[in-house]
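Action item from last week, closing it out:
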Amino acid sequence: MGRAFHLVSLGCPKNRVDSERIAFVMMESGFEPADDPGVADVIVVNSCSFVAPAVEESLDTILDLRNENPSAVLVVAGCMPLRYGEALADELPEVDLFLDPAGIAGLPRLVEAAALARAESSLTRAEPGVFHGPAAVSQPVIGRAVSTPGYAYLKVAEGCSRRCTYCTIPGITGPLRSMDPGILEREVESLAERGVREIVVVAQDVTAFGSDRGEKDGLVGLLHRIQRISGIDWIRLMYLHPAGISRELLELIRISEKVLPYMDVPFQHVSAKVLRAMGRPWRDDPVRRLVDRIRTEVPDVVLRTTVMVGFPGETAREFEELSAFVSQAGIEHVGVFEYSPEEDTPAARRGDPVPSDEKKARADEIRAIHARFSHRWHRARVGGIEEVLVEGVSGETDLLLQGRAWYQAPEADGVTYITAGTCVPGEIRLLQVTDSHGPDLFGEILTEATRTREVRK
């Protein structure tokens, strides 16, 4: 068979990490990446099946690529094999190989076998997730072909042991299984040696890291280890469950020179009634109290959250609670999702009583409320000096470089366009903000190369 492969990565940053591992093992086995799927001998789709639209996107991508290249060995990896198992072999005869994420290390060998049996559809299954049971070290340590400029995601665990009623993840990937801290430390060291300056820590529930091993504040211990690694300047925390934010974690964020005072905490809602129905049963206005506690403990913090509208049981009254919170809390970054029932979840048994046009209207209202605050907040940055990670030529125009201020998470928040000054991709530099447009900033690189945490305040 030929040796060109084309890789498509769908879904979340956790999927991107697996995609980078797929690319690494393929290139280590002599395969060459191809930008054009039409000339590839192997096509790999790292799929997502978290919600129905993601499943539809994955299916459309798979079928489009098969139509574009009927002769390639077509591999579907990621969440779809985990969620649907052997049923996929009957539903998608266009696919040659379905790969459980635990089988990434053996992909080149499986591709060779599939090429010899092109007429057959093969399903390779292993235990769910990247790791085989509690002995994480039994899974071979796989390198990564880093695909992001100046930063890299660090996936610290697979699965989730919480039971949010709307979420498919526990059923797809199983319970939480934390990676060994020593393995993660060595991975970060390797990333730093390749010029990575920012580590973005991800998992389905980052705050639960180590709890499956009985560790208390396992995340804090991991952060202490990786913040000592030379070359890493920023450590960003994503997907922090509200119930898992400890005093020790907030103290570390407050005093650390490397762990950014940026916290992504998906609240989903603020109504006690809706939270109970979601399987997130907090009482006594816990979300507002948590926001106050975070801002008290980490005065320079920037918060990101996501909220869901239209969940079963959300009446006009509960929506008013949510919209009032978004209006008053001053959360710097807010994402909004419209609820859609997912099969085999407890929430799906409650039906879908809120009409789709009402969900859209509620989502649009939340976005409008937050957009007004976001506009003011970003305009207030104009004239200030910010730390910026330079990423490279802008995707909008090759006349500008693009980067991110420390409070702009990759692929989630706005970006910073660099209009003047000399800098090199991968550097973290000081930038004078000259303008803003929506969530995006514009600015000029300063001649000083010194960076200081004081700039973030």
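Closing note: The chain has 13 helices and 19 strands.
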